[in-house]
Design a protein that fits this description.
By secondary structure, this protein is mainly beta. The protein is built from six helices and 45 strands. Helix content is about 5%, strand content about 65%. It comes from Flavisolibacter tropicus.
Amino acid sequence: MKFVLAFLLILIRFAAYSQTDALGILSGNILDEKKKALEGATVTLYQIADTSKAKTTTSDKDGAFSFSAIPFGHYKLRFSYVGLAALTIDSIYFRPDRFDFNLSDIVLKGGNAENLNEVVIYAEKPLIQSKEGNITFNAGESALSAGSNASELLTNVPLVTKDPDGKLLVRGKEPKILIDDKPVELNQQQLQDLLESMPGSSIEKIEVMTNPPPQYANEQGGVINITTRKGKVGKSGRLTLSGGTRGETSLNGNYNYRKQGFAMNINAGGSYNQYNSNSYAIRQNFYTATTKNYETRSQSESQNLRPNFRANADYEFNKMHSINAVLNYNRNNANSEATTDFMPSYQLSHRVVKNEGENFNANLSLTYTFRSKKPGEVLRFIANGSLSSNENDKNFYQQFLDAEYNFNGKDSLLLQNTDNFSKGMNYRLNYDLPLSNRKTFLSFGSFLNEIYSHIQTVADFKQAVSGKMVPLSALTYAYKYQQEIKNLRGSIKQKWSESFSTAAGVSIEQTSFDFNLYKVSSNVNNAYWSYLPFANMNKSWKDVLNLTLSYRRTIRRPGNGELSPIVDSSDLFNLRSGNPTLLPSLTNNFDLVLGTSKKKFYANLGMGFNTIEDVFNQVRTQVNDSTTQIMWQNSSGKKEYEFSTWNGYTISKKVKVNLSASYTYNIYSGFDKTQRNFKNGGSLTSNLNANYTFSDLFNTTSSFTFNRFASPQGSARSSLSMNLGFQAKLLNKKMTATLNVIDPFRQQQNHSFTYGKNFTIENYNSTRSRNIRLTIGYIFNKMAKKSKSSEKDKQKLQKALAPKNS
C-alpha cells in the first residue's frame, strides 16, 4: 500500500504541475458526407461573451485541425468549406477540470436550404448514459478500462454480472453479444476466451439494450453491443503495457488508418496471468439411524498465456454500398496443478491433478450493407465462419494414506487426453424498410446457424499388478455433434406520435441436432420448431417520464455441453454428464420499465414476471455413500418475479455516481420441491460505480459489486468485489498512467450449499484476486499544424461573425 500511496502522490503532483497556468486545447478532423477528409476547411473559434476574440485555422490534408492556448470560458466553433453547408458547434466550455476537447469526424453536408447553417449544441460525454431503459458505458472515459480485458470491463457496467460459472448475465439472463453491431456466434467457452483476450483499451463503449431492436427482440437477456475504437482520419496507433502484483502482464498494440471511404484497425498483443485458489467441500449423508461425513480440501494454481489478433476493415464504395471484414484470432495456453486431500475416515487419500491445455479460436466475418436513397431503408448481409480447437491433457495421480496420513503403498495413475475440434457457419440477412408516411417501419430477416463438433477422449491407467499403462475403455470415447438453427422473422413498428409508439413481431425457428456415438454405434437426434412472438409499447412524457411495456417469448437451447451423453468419471466422487433427451426451455417474459432522465440524474425502475417451461439445470443426485452425479435435467417449470433499478446522479461536474441492482425470485413447482428437493430462492446482483475528476489530466473511477445467486438445490454467494482506478494523462495527453487496486480488503470467495433428498454439500472456494496493476499507454498520432491567417482575413472573419444590430 505504501507503493500505491507514493505513486498516487506522484501522479497528483505531476497532474497539478501540468495544469499550472494551463489554457484550453481543441483538436479534431473534418470530413464530407463521403467520409473524405477536407483539406483547407476554415475553422473559427470565438468566445460567446466577446465575438471579437476569435481564432482561425484551416484543416490539413487529413482534415485535422487544432487550437491551443485558449482562455477559459464558453465558446462557439464554426466550420465552413466552399460548396458545403456551414456548421456551428455551440457551448463548448473550457475550464480547469476540462480544458482539452477532441472532436472527431465533423461532417459537413451539401449546401441546401434545409441545412444552410446547422447549429449543434455540444454535450460532454459522461461515463454512463441511460436512455429509454438502455445503458451506454463509455469505456474510453473510464480509468478501469486500461490494463483490463473485455470480460473484466463488462462486470463494471450496470446490470451486467457473471454467474459462478463465468457466464455473462443481464438482469439474471444470458444476453446476445455483439461486437461492432455484428453477432458473436460462439459457445460459452469460446466467448469467454475471446472476451478475456480482448484488451479493454481497444473498447470505445459498451451498450446494454434491455429492450433490443427487432433483429434480437427474442434474446432472453437482451443485447450487449461492444463498440471498438476506430481512430481518426490518417494514421494513429496506441501501445499499452501493464503488469500486476498477482502475477500478470500484458502488451497490446493498436494501429488505425482512415482515408476517404476506407478504414482499417488492427489490434495485436498478448497477456499472461496466474491464479491461486483453495477450497473445501463437506458432504453429509443422512440415513435412518446414522449420518456419514466426507470432506475434501484442495489447492490449485493455474497459468494462462493468451496471444490475440484482430483486424477490422471498412470500405464505402459510395453512400449506398459498403463492405466490412473482421478477422479475429485468439489462443489460450493453460497449465494448472491441483492437490486434493480426501478425508473419509475409512479411505484417506491425496490426489494431484496436472492439466495442460491448448486452444485457439479463429473467426472471419464479412458484411455487405446497402442503404437506399430513402432514409432508414437498409439491407444487410452477414456471413460468419469460425474454427476452434481445444486439446487437453490431464494427469491424475492418487496416493492412499493410513490413519496417520502416511502413504500406505497403494496408488493409482490415470492419463486422459481430450481433443475437441469445432467449426461453425452463420448467415444472417436483415432488411429494414420505413414506409412513405415516416411513421410505419417494417423489419424482416432470417438466419442460418450451423455448428459441427468432433470430440475424442483417450484414457490410460496404471495396472496395480504389472505397473504398466493400459487403455481404460470406460473413459475412452469419441462422438460427433451437429446442430442447425433456421430462423425467419418479421416485425412492424408504428409511431403514433413523437411520444408514443408500438411494435410487434414474430420469429419462427427450427432447431435440429444429432449425436453420433462411435464407440457404441449409437445415434441420438432431435428436431423441434419454436414460435417466438414479441410486442412492446413505448410512451414518453417530455422531460418527465418514459414508460416501456413489453412481452416476448424467448428460447434457451441446450448445447453440446448440456446434451453430451458421455459420463465424465475422472473424479470418482463427482460424476458429471449431459443429457441428450433435454428439451429447450421456453419463457414468456412480461416487463415494465419506467425511466426519467434529467440534466443531473437519470433513474430507471424495471419490474418483470416470467413463466418458464421445461427449465434445465444441473441436478446433483447421490449414487452411493461416497459418490454423487451431476446431470443436466429438465424440471416441470418455474415462475420468476423480477425487480431491477439503474440510476445515476451528477453531484457536481467533478463527481458522478451510478448504482444498479437486480433481484430475481424463483418459484418452483410442487412436484420439483417434493420429488427433487428444489427450493424457492432469490438472486441478487448489484453494482456501485463512482467517478471523480480532479482535473482534465487526472481522474479516478471505482466499482463495487456484490452478487448472490440461487440454484434449484441451494444458493451460491459471491463476496464483495472492488476495483479502484486512478489515471493520469501526461505528455500533452499522449501518455496515460493508470493504477488499479483490485480487491484490496478481501479476496474473492464463493460459498455454496446443495441440498439433496438425503444429503447436503457445503462448498467453499477462495481465489487470490487482490492485485495492484500499473498500466502505461502511449498514443502515436500526428497533430495538425496550426495555420496562421493574415490580419486582414481575421478582420473580415470577425466582422462576418459579429452579431448584427437589429
